[in-house]
Amino acid sequence: MPCKKIVIPLAAAALACPVMAGQSDFERIDAHVHVLQVSPEYYRMLGALNLRVINVCVLDKYDAGFEAVAPQQATAQRAFRESKHKVAWCATFDPGDWEKHGFAREVERSLDERFRQGAVAVKIYKSIGMELKSRSGEYLMADDPAFALIYRFIARRNRTLYAHLAEPTAAWLPLDPKSPHYGYYKNNPDWHMFQHPERPKKETILAARDHVLKANPGLRMVGCHLGSMEQDVDTIAERLDRYPNFAVDTAARVADLMVQPREKVRAFLIRYQDRVLYGTDLGLGPKADVGKSIESMRTVYELDWKYFSSDEWIETRVGRVQGLALPPEALRKIFRENALRWVPGAGK
Ligand SMILES: [Zn+2]
Question: I need a surface site. Which of 68, 246, 341, 344 has the fewest CB within 10 A?
Answer without folding.
Answer: 68
